[in-house]
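Dear Dr. V.,

Thank you for agreeing to look over these. As mentioned in my earlier message, I'm a first-year student in the group and I'm still getting used to reading structure tokens, so any feedback on how I've presented them would be very welcome. I ran two proteins. I've put each sequence directly above its structure. The first is here:
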Amino acid sequence: MKLFVQVPCLNEEGTLGMVLDTIPRQIEGVDQVEILVIDDGSTDRTVEVAREHGVKHFVRHARNMGLARSFRDGVDYALAHGADIVVNTDGDNQYKQEYIGELVAPVVRGEADIAIADRQTARIAHFSWFKKRMQHFGSQVVNYAAGTRLPDAASGFRAYSKNALLKLNVITQFSYCMETIIQAGNKRLRIASVPITTNPKTRESRLFNNIFQHMAKSGGAITRSYLMFKPHVVLGWLAALFAVIGAIPFIRFFILWCMGTAGGHIQSLVFGTTMLVAALLSVALLVIADLQRTNRVLIEETLERVKNIEYGRVDHTQIPGIRAALVSGRPSGADPAYSRED
């Protein structure tokens, strides 16, 4: 079993050495440990420091592409080089790499597809009271959207099985953390939580300028991911809300009409009609969104098959359509008159 530890970096020459020195090279249940440094447009000696510490695997961006893109490119590289498990950590030495063995253990044992480190944020000294509360609240929101029970959804210290990585598709440009949990939960992947402690803070986050920006970006990522899987829930509630609000003026008008005092209430009927039209539009959007969700599922299943072939998990010659094409010498489903010249 091959494990890749990927370290996304942006100008981490001061801390990267400490991270690399503490990554364990021997882990129970793992035959080979490889380290991958993802240079996300660094302008300092990050790459040189990595090479000095014996790193042989690199993904380099000519300019800063963001954490989500770095994660995605790192995963592609690791899978292409035979990874069975990918651990994602940080180059700022926030996480104690000694926990990697404990982090991958549930995945190695086959008990989980993803293992996420629980930083126990309530005990982190440099977190303010407000940040601790927001971390807890954010985790609860993600858990609701994903159907999970994770204490620290924002943690970036994670272990992914190959099976999980083949099923996940990172779309967001901000951070993959929330999106992958929501996807994993809705795709019924098993997620484990592993309690850890963290190192003292070395620098401010480069993902956001302040906690409010982080909340806004994370909220947007959560909303998009939730809508991708459950648009019918949001649009269904909107349709019901508009329908109830729209029905009230008509019920009121009917009661007044029965009492013989309905005159002069046309404005409320106009408002009610507007709300009912909004309800109908919500229902129409619900139908369209549900059809799009069906297409997304089919596309993701196709993409997973492609990944299985690309990363060597499936022998493409054993897929019936392709095998038949290889035997017959023409593409599956092609016209019998098809021929080729070698």
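The second protein is here, in the same arrangement:
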Amino acid sequence: MPSYSFEKKHTTTALTTITLILSAYSTLRYLVFGKAINENDPFDVGLTPFTGSIIIVFLYWMVMFLFQALFIIRYFVSEEREHEDPRQSKAFLASNHFMAFNTITFFWTILFGKGYYFFAELLAIANFLNITSLIIIHKTYITSQFSDYFLIHVSTAALPFSWLLYLIFWNGAAVFRSSTGLIARILANIFIWNFLFVPVLFIVFFGDWAIGLSSSLLMFGLGIGQIATKVFALQWIFAFIISGILALFSLIAFVGYGTSFMVTIEREERAPLLSEEA
């Protein structure tokens, strides 16, 4: 194995680890504990129509960070793949977008936590394009092993994509200081359906149940956050409806994915036997 592969793999291990730590640190410091630092609760932000439940969002982040840590351990630290050429690995290809995602997230949390919403929105959009390109170019949703789907696609693509899609609207509402006013609520009642249409497109065309399921969780969190803000409103009702529909579609796609995956494995196992019989 060329020394390039060995050195490149260990460099990638260090960079992915550092960027993940920075992202997790800034998220906790400037968002979760932001009020204690700036006397300004980032999860208030004028109580926008896209402000969700801090508990659900926090759990979402923890799951995402856990999956990303497992991604690093599995593909860059584990000795099991020590001799795998990183240039041919989908995990290695995804790692560049992974590092970009966490680096941008690090700076976004600082800007958002300090109230620089416009510049934070620009970073959110850039990060969304980064993850979208990862999915489209490298097709992380296509894997030969079930574990690779979880540790590569879910950790580096699906969870970040759903989060960034939600973030663009939440951050955008903060930019325009959207509150619980009538006009803001009407626009929010329209824009919220993007959280149904976009994930459904990924489910239908790519069978990507992970994006659907993660978006469903965020919509559930949005529903909880909005019902605590304004009980007599449509936003939380729409959020729960979207969450339920996405959960159903994702479950159907997951069953289909699991079935096709098992059929593929069975064919691969039978192939040597058929060749011997021939």
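From my reading of the second output: Residues 3-277 form one domain. The first helix runs from residue 3 to 32. Does that match how you would interpret it?

Kind regards,
E.
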